[in-house]
Design brief:
heterotrimer, A mainly alpha, B mainly alpha, C mainly alpha, C: mainly alpha, 4 helices, 68% helix
Chain lengths: 493, 245, 130
């Protein structure tokens, strides 16, 4: 059997159905089996990514009917990069969390692992699909798993955060359905490539209304202002491996959906102004909110929203340089934020509190974890020689190419705010007087390996970004070329 | 007060936007076109449901074959909702030593008319449900509809009899196996015919009970999965014991 | 048959207003409930009503006047040209099931919240602002 994109989806799916049965045979099946599946995903990522780079795209037909009559999966350089990123991050998070102590109690582990695995499968489905309604189905899959995971812990805040997310998520799906239906009435098809082909002929009033519905829906999922009030609560109340997954996998998939619909189905020029304005607002408000936080996970959550805003701005700027920066930013954000959540989680676990004023002098107890955390902080602000530097630089280059001076000033000022609240935390960790008792929970080996791997990625990409810049340029070019996308899909046999 | 004005304004704008935009696709207008030379996706589906797939119910053909991947996602959503539900409502004290759930519902005892009627109706409802999903490719209906009917039958029993419970182990096995069966059928299509969920070439004759190739088989799996899943969800939601004092 | 055709043509605007209008009305009613009501269960019901409205709109859009259900029963094997659009019906099937799943999950969260707070009023979910 040839390795094809469908493996990304049906292998985790079959495993998720199997886990309740395997659990009866072998007590720890639920912890170990997802790791095997995610490792398999990682392996096929490498294979499929190389194939995409050689042939331009990798496509697959489902159920034997060629598009637009059947559903198709398509890996463009953009989606292949993101799919590989998601697979890598999923494996790293599993590695970090599979012996996670707080979830140790018997029956619950199974639920947790199934939900995490299916969230990954859902995100991969969003990234790989070529059909609009299929996109909706996979967004629902990720939504349902995410809600359940947010509400996982027994204390009351989890359920509240979950309810808020569920409320907004439900509204998002209804709006998405309305938008999809509107597009269907005007174009008669649900296949993304064929919609892209027929869109220019659609009456622009209806087009705008459909676009607004879909932007509202995907904006809720992608944490755009003002629809992102669910995100800080969700990120901070979920178990830490889940928060890491949200930041790296879910946000990436949601942003991909937004860009794919905006760029390919509609027109990049229609949404560029909107993306710049809303993205900037998202960034501004989120970073200012992060500044006044006292809770570590909430601060990281607001910072994540801010980074998503920056990515939106970059996609809005729209020239090749900015898109390169945006793609690099998505990769960086996934890796760095996950590292921050992972290391931050050990702080919280040791101090039994999420408040940051308890972090004073903790570098004495957890020296390596503090080092990793600080590395993440420097990377996300954009200090060289870490990977975060390049993404910010290229986005600013892109803005400069279009003479958007105000925007550059805006982004730099917000970076200053970021520096303030992040360096404040590092200051506490290293230079403040200790207040708390000795910690007793050093991270386990698997967690250390996972976190170190992420740190290495940050350092390597920082020093030698050319390792991936060729791929990212190709991804950006293909993204901007709508006709190539349409041609590839509609000529499938 | 300000919120009320804002909400009314928003609703008015939304209502007008919806009505105006959907008004561009007038009610009853034929947007499908002729089926002998299909110009739209719908016409293609109608033509090939009868010809290539020999399936009388074209909606079934779309749900299980043409857009079978969506249905796979949908079945997954159901499974995840049941899992999520169990995860959210999980309480250690509801299980005894072997992990079995003890059904104790707090509804009022039902009258004798209901008790007798329920006992008669329950097997009939189950039969109807099974009929619906076995004939999904011939008559309106299918796995989801039949599964819901069966779950309704169980709901009737849950409401009437407070101690009526389902065997948890059997439910878990049925759920997992039927879901797995669906995925494996897709895998069979991938290995034998070249793409995931592809149908067999031998599709029988229109309106036969055995027609449509793998389509009725998949719908039977879906029917079993949906009925067990919905019943499980109902069971979980109804077993809300008040916390022990 | 001919009379139905004439009636449909004459009252087309009214029929369209009735069908599309009721679907849109359902969506608006549901949205009102979600935005204005304080009781958690009422909010969940509101979400459910919105979904019903959307599904109704789907099916309404698929209708073609004078056409019949897209099932090739004995006697209708060659009636493909006289059938309604089957695609929205298939989409609605999926959408209904997904809507059910979301509602079930929502209600379980409501149960959890009620267990902790002993009240189902959304005003007390304020502990997570800023």
């Amino acid at each position: 059997m040839v390795i094809s994109p469908i493996h990304y989806i049906f292998v985790p799916l079959a495993t998720a159905f199997l886990i309740p049965l395997l659990q009866k045979l072998y007590k720890d099946a639920a912890r170990v089996v997802p790791g095997l599946v995610l490792f398999y995903n990682l392996v096929i990522s490498v294979i499929l990514f190389r194939r995409v780079m050689q042939h331009g795209t990798v496509t697959e037909i489902i159920a034997g009917w060629r598009p637009p009559f059947g559903i198709n999966l398509i890996m463009t350089p953009f989606s292949a990069t993101l799919a590989s990123l998601v697979s890598f991050m999923a494996f790293a998070v599993w590695l970090y969390g599979f012996r996670f102590k707080r979830v140790l109690k018997g029956g619950e582990v199974m639920y947790y692992e199934i939900l995490q695995l299916m969230m990954i499968a859902g995100a991969l489905g969003i990234i790989l699909t070529g059909d609009l309604f299929n996109l909706f189905v996979f967004i629902e899959i990720t939504g349902i798993t995410a809600i359940s995971l947010v509400a996982f812990y027994r204390d009351r805040h989890g359920a509240e955060a979950g309810f808020k997310y569920m409320l907004l998520g439900s509204l998002a799906s209804s709006f998405l359905l309305l938008g999809i239906l509107l597009i269907y009435t005007q174009t008669g098809t649900l296949n993304m490539a064929q919609i892209a082909q027929k869109m220019p002929a659609v009456d622009s009033g209806v087009k705008v209304i459909a676009l607004i519905f879909i932007l509202i829906a995907l904006g809720i999922e992608a944490e755009m202002f003002p629809l992102n009030s669910w995100a800080p609560d969700a990120y901070s109340q979920a178990p830490s491996p889940t928060s890491a997954t949200f930041a790296s996998v879910l946000a990436v998939a949601a942003l991909y959906a937004l860009i794919r619909v905006g760029y390919t189905l509609f027109d990049a020029r229609m949404i560029s102004g909107f993306l710049i304005v809303m993205g900037f607002l998202t960034m501004l408000i989120a970073e200012m909110a992060a500044f006044s936080q006292t809770d570590l996970k909430r601060m990281l959550a607001y910072s994540s929203i801010g980074q998503m805003g920056l990515a939106m701005v970059a996609f809005g700027i729209g020239n090749e340089t900015a898109i390169f920066g945006a793609l690099f930013l998505m990769i960086n954000h996934a890796v760095i934020k996950a590292l921050l959540f992972m290391s931050g989680s050990y702080f919280i676990y040791n101090l039994q509190t999420k408040k940051m004023d308890a972090l004073n002098g903790i570098h004495k107890r957890l020296p390596y974890v503090s080092f990793l955390f600080s590395l993440g902080v420097l990377a996300i602000i954009g200090f060289p020689p870490f990977s975060g530097f390049w993404s910010k630089l290229y986005i600013l280059y892109g803005a400069a190419n279009k003479n958007m001076l105000l925007l550059i000033i805006g982004i730099l000022s917000i970076t200053l705010i970021e520096m303030t609240y992040y360096l404040r935390v590092i200051g506490r960790i290293y230079f403040a007087k200790e207040k708390s008792e000795p910690a007793s929970h050093k991270p386990s080996v698997n967690a250390l390996v996972a976190m170190t791997a992420l740190a290495l990625v940050i350092i390597i990409l920082g020093i030698y970004p050319d390792l991936i810049s060729g791929y990212l340029h190709q991804a950006g070019r293909f993204l901007l070329d709508k006709q190539a996308y349409i041609q590839t899909v509609l000529s499938m046999r | 007060m300000l919120k009320k004005i804002f909400v009314w304004f928003l609703l008015a704008v939304l209502g007008i936007a919806l009505y105006a935009s959907f008004g561009r696709a007038p009610f009853g207008e034929n947007r499908v076109g002729p089926t002998d030379n299909p110009a739209t996706v719908s016409a293609f589906y109608l033509k090939n449901s009868a010809e290539k797939l020999q399936t009388a119910n074209s909606v079934t053909a779309i749900v299980v074959n043409f857009r079978g991947f969506d249905t796979l996602g949908e079945v997954t959503v159901l499974f995840l909702a049941a899992t999520g539900l169990a995860s959210i409502l999980y309480r250690k004290e509801d299980e005894d030593e072997e992990g079995e759930h003890l059904p104790v519902r707090i509804n009022l005892p039902a009258s004798s008319i209901v008790r007798t009627g329920a006992k008669i109706l329950f097997p009939l409802i189950l039969l109807l449900g099974i009929y619906i999903f076995v004939h999904g490719h011939l008559t309106p209906g299918g796995g989801f509809q039949g599964g819901s009917v069966i779950a309704t039958g169980f709901l009737l029993m849950f409401i009437t009899y407070r101690r009526f419970g389902t065997n948890h182990k059997v439910m878990v096995w049925l759920e997992s196996l039927s879901g797995l069966a669906f995925v494996l059928t897709g895998l069979y299509g991938l290995i034998k015919y070249g793409s995931f969920l592809q149908n067999t070439p031998d599709v029988g004759h229109l309106n036969d009970l055995v027609s449509g190739g793998l389509i009725p088989l998949i719908y039977i799996f879906i029917g079993i999965k949906v009925s067990t899943e919905l019943t499980n969800v109902l069971d979980t939601l109804m077993n809300i014991k008040p916390k022990k004092r | 048959m001919k009379e139905f055709q004439e009636i449909f043509l004459r009252y087309h605007a009214l029929l369209q207003a009735a069908v599309y209008g009721s679907a849109v009305l359902l969506i608006l009613i549901g949205l009102y409930a979600v935005l204005m009501k304080k009781h958690l269960v009422k909010i969940v019901i509101g979400l459910s009503i919105i979904e019903s409205g959307v599904n109704l709109l789907f099916v309404a859009v698929g209708y073609i006047s004078n056409h019949t259900a897209p099932i090739f029963s004995p006697g209708y094997e060659h009636a493909a040209d006289k059938m309604v659009d089957p695609v929205p019906q298939a989409l609605v099937l999926t959408a209904i099931v997904i809507g059910f799943a979301t509602t079930a999950l929502a209600l379980s969260l409501v149960i959890r919240l009620y267990r902790h707070h002993k009240t189902a009023n959304i005003e007390q979910l304020k502990s997570l602002r800023w």
